[in-house]
Amino acid sequence: MLREEDKREVRERLASMREPVTLVYFTQMLAGACRFCVETERLLKDLASLSDKITLEIKNFVSDADEAARYGVDKIPATVLIGAKDQGLCFYGMPSGYEFMTFLETMLRMSSRDSGLSEESRKLLKRLSRPVHLQVFVTPTCPYCPQSAILGYSLAMESDFITCDVVEISEFPHLAQKYEVMGVPKTLINDTDGLDGAVPEAVLVSRIMKTAENEPKSE
User: Alpha carbon of 137 to those of 15, 189, 196, 212: distances in Å?
Assistant: First the structure.
């Protein structure tokens, strides 16, 4: 999938990885079951071959249903990104185009065990005490999407209460209709609060805290 010149550049970037990162990929090979599963697997295999710090595990969405449920995977293709532990980071779709850069940057941050967030954001997130689920809707041709996707993943890395799915929305049109995604990037917080565009870190953290505070307490 990756051209030789791209492999050289990616290998150089991945050379700075310090700690291992695991990619758990869920796929299905039945004809018509998953449009981009084969291509996504090839891309991930190419990526994993470029660094001994990357481990790729390939799972079947049907026969490994228990594992899919454990990771919260409900559609394919899906890739769970794991650093020191599972922190709820998943990419749905094929991470191509600009979203390949999202993948690279996120793996580098996971490998460094550092979210890259500001100290102010870290302090605010320590006050979080309720689960927050982020969905960041992107497309491979959107140059502003990696900023939002990387931010969502960084927030999930920083707080055990936050999980983040990045969704390549053109592969899941039913979600575009469900969440009224008219443009990308779009970030959705707990299925209720949507932010359009590449919002600054401080703005998203503030909205996360406000949304969590307004969530009804579980009985």
Answer: 29, 12, 10, 20
Could you report the per-residue pLDDT of 61-74, keeping only the tens digit for each?
999 999 999 999 99
Residue matched to tokens 């491979």: 140
Question: Which stretch of 90-99, 109-118, 138-147, 210-219 has the lowest confidence by average pLDDT?
Answer: 210-219
CB 128 within 8 Å of CB 162 = yes
Give the predicted TM-score (pTM) of the model: 0.95
Beta-carbon count within 10 A of 38 CB: 13
State the CB neighbour count (10 A cutoff) for residue 129. 8
Domain ranges of the chain: 4-213
Which of 3.30.230.10, 3.40.50.620, 3.40.190.10, 3.40.30.80 would CATH assign to domain 4-213? 3.40.30.80
Contact 3, 48 (CB under 8 A): no
